[in-house]
Design goal:
Layout lengths: L1 H16 L25 E5 L3 H11 L3 E7 L5 E7 L8 E7 L15 E4 L3 H7 L6 E2 L4 E3 L4 E7 L5 E7 L1
Length: 166
């Protein structure tokens, strides 16, 4: 029953994303989901221009893994879900690519970003440039929070703050 509900929800999402498109059975139907009887953060979504470049950044540089996703039958939209573990309580990052996007979308200036905790921030920072990302801030220590922090951008310009706890 849980898988049927998931397929129905993603079919609705696909039709909303690409009106008139037929949805394929999404592999997201087999993804680990939180208990539906309680509230939780499931994923944050990023619109990307080039899925391959985005996957290089999130998988190769940050170490995330693909845990689900779907494409419309006419290939006008593709969504890939990434997480560090495929467990029900893992927060996912959803990457959405639509064929109508022919160039990166503008990003508002401000504080909108995701924060990802990593065990070795220096090692991750060395992988960012080769995976198409940018390091946009110096690595610095926040003594009061007992953390190391660095601001980066993915290939589409989305801000990603890296955090390593002491």
């Amino acid at each position: 029953m849980r898988n049927l509900i998931t397929v129905i929800l993603f079919s609705i999402a696909v039709l909303t994303i690409a009106p008139g498109a037929q949805a394929q059975v999404p592999e997201a139907a087999t993804m680990a989901w939180p208990d539906k009887s309680s509230s939780s953060v499931v994923f944050t979504s990023r619109v990307v221009w080039n899925m391959d470049k985005a996957l290089d950044f999130y998988v190769q540089a940050l170490g995330m893994q693909r845990v689900g996703g779907f494409s419309t039958a006419d290939k006008s939209a593709q969504e890939v879900f990434l997480a560090f573990t495929d467990t029900p309580d893992s927060v996912k990052v959803a990457l959405l690519q639509q064929s109508k996007n022919t160039e990166p979308l503008p990003h508002p200036d401000g504080y909108s970003h995701i924060v990802i905790q990593v065990p070795d921030i220096k090692a991750v920072l060395t992988r960012i440039p080769s995976a198409g990302g940018k390091i946009v801030g110096e690595l610095h220590h926040v003594a009061a929070a007992k953390t190391w922090i660095a601001m980066t951008e993915d290939p589409d310009g989305h801000k990603v703050e890296l955090l390593q706890r002491d």
